[in-house]
Amino acid sequence: MQACAGTHVNRTGEIGAVKVLKTEPVQDGVERIVFAAGAAAIEATQRTEDALSDAAEVLDVDPLDVPETAERFFEEWKARGKEIESLKEELAAARAAGGADARRSTSAGRRR
Predict the structure, then answer these.
(1) For residues 56 and 70, what is the distance between their CA atoms, to the nearest angstrom?
(2) Do 15 and 48 sit in the same domain of this protein?
(3) Structural domain tally of the chain?
(4) Do 101 and 71 sit in the same domain of this protein?
(5) Are residues 5 and 28 in the same domain?
(6) Rounded mean pLDDT of 81-101?
(7) What per-residue confidence (pLDDT) applies to 8?
(8) Mean pLDDT score of the chain
(9) Where does the chain show beta strands of DSSP type E?
(10) Do 84 and 50 belong together in one domain?
(11) How many CB atoms lie within 10 A of CB 49?
């Protein structure tokens, strides 16, 4: 495995902080690592921290609880979506079984 950032220094301390921003597959077995170094790494870290703090504030939880809370909210959202679809199907079945006829006769009675 090799890594080259195109900068050669006498010691790694000259580079400062390094933050991996993302990895991208280039070809089988080869990944491109996108990173920031020095002041840019500190700025990238601060942006991440700010985003986490904003999410924690919206969710009204501690920043460390954001992942678990977001996952719970997502699961609840999916469950409610399934429940809505189920209720729509039940409503359609009820209408098909005669519920629509009862509604039409009630509406017709009001027109007179």
Answers:
(1) 10
(2) yes
(3) 2
(4) yes
(5) yes
(6) 88
(7) 76
(8) 86
(9) 18-27, 30-37
(10) no
(11) 11
- Read off the pTM: 0.61
Residues 49 and 2 in one domain: yes
Read out DSSP for 80-108? Answer: HHHHHHHHHHHHHHHIIIIIHHHHHHHHH
| Mean of pLDDT values over 18-34 | 89
- Measure the CA angle with vertex 98, ends 92 and 100; round to 5°: 65
Residue 54 CA to residue 66 CA, distance in Å, equals: 10
Read off the pLDDT band of 43 (50, 70, 90): very high
- Tell me which residue range forms the domain holding 18: 1-60
53 lies in the same domain as 77: no
Residue, of 80 and 10, whose pLDDT is higher = 80
Using CA atoms, how far residue 56 sits from 45, 46, 48, 63, in Å, is 16, 15, 12, 5
